[in-house]
Amino acid sequence: TTSKKSIVLSSETRRELAKQAKVTKDERRSQLDERHKYLILRLADGIGLSEQQVEEAIISDDKFQLIEQFFASAGLKKLLFFYQGVLQQKTDAFLRSDGPTNSLLQKKLFITMGSTEDFTGTCAFFLRTSDKVITTSNISQEVNFGIFDCTNGNILQGLEVFLSHIMIPALKSQQNWGALKEGLKNSQIQDFLYSVDKFVGTLSSSRQNIEDKIQLTKVDIDIYLSNLQNPSDYIIAGNSHGKTNIMML
């Protein structure tokens, strides 16, 4: 039999951890410049938080270094933030490792690579348009910002709204199409926009089909089998249940 050890953090240890966390946040706060303020302003406006709340979330995030990698020459192509419910573990007052814990779902803004956490809330994203170093003077030209709402985990609906209400109107108002000087009059552009419209229509139909899906009730088949005595009983039972299923559909 092995005994389970209880680890209790002393008041001094807790104070030291809190002190280290404060030092880290203060160092990061001192590194913030106009580029970071640009991100903070967009996030605050898009998600509906105060600038102070966004700043605190950023400097407290263990993926803070991803922001610098995004700003660097030929750096990350995207910078993602999730704002959604996250389970927070609350331990007892003594912080025992084997003490009682309660899981509380609290909304949190955090930096993510987008591949490790389930997406159930709002995604705010920044996209680079080139490999240039992101500076305080070019960030508004080199970085695009967008919001993808997936409240309650309804990804199909979020994608449908994002494409139909944001992306398609933006594409149809686009004036500069690079080498295609004719713009929206060009047949290739028209085909492209038609395909996007068709995709959104298919997406909408798929979502509605999924939401209106038929739920089949589990049936205790033993009750029916116990009353079947000969082949004619099986034929009659099969025909009657087939008609019932057709009527239900």
Automatic annotation (TrEMBL):
GO terms for molecular function: dynein intermediate chain binding; dynein light intermediate chain binding. It comes from the Eukaryota. Coiled coil: none annotated. InterPro entries: DHC. GO terms for biological process: microtubule-based movement. PANTHER family: CYTOPLASMIC DYNEIN 1 HEAVY CHAIN 1, MALE FERTILITY FACTOR KL5. This is DYH5 protein.
